[in-house]
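1st attempt posting a full record on here, be nice pls
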Amino acid sequence: MLKVGLTGGIGAGKSEVSRRLAERGAVVIDADRIAREVVEPGTPGLDAVVAEFGTDVLTADGRMDRERVGAIVFADPDRLAALNKIVHPLVGERMQELMDAAPGDAIVVYDVPLLTENNLAGMYDVVIVVDAPVELQVERLTTLRGMTEDAARARIAAQATREQRRAVADHVIDNSGSMDDLDARVDEIWADLTRRAATAV
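the predicted structure (as tokens):
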């Protein structure tokens, strides 16, 4: 099994790369999706979030209001640490379950937004960083996700810098070009991953 860490700043286009790797045959384990699952209504994770942050962070139908929680934690490092202390162990547990279920010869891609911030690079055989200029990240977040510019810049500032992510990368994908450019770069990297997987057997 080849373990690949995939990361990138918010708005860099990591999901596009993740989808393309899955199309080429990778088993993708998406930490963001799992992070949503572990705080679904009725889970111990959501109970812990409510105990820490209060019922104000719930929507009318009892779900966690991600935007409201985001506004709180990205403005206060202590609150962010409190949220991470709840969510990260639950995510790690679920990711391990999914990894255990993957075929022994799989190329497993862990889509991990905070790989650099949490010093996780050493857990993977290969680290791929999806990169884009900050101004392009801001543009994508405001136009595609409807964030205000201030909120977008706060989210970007709360993450590792581009330089910090690049420092842990085996491969950097520049995602400031066209979709064709992205496809070509993913093809190059997939060829390298399949080569590595074959020699690891």
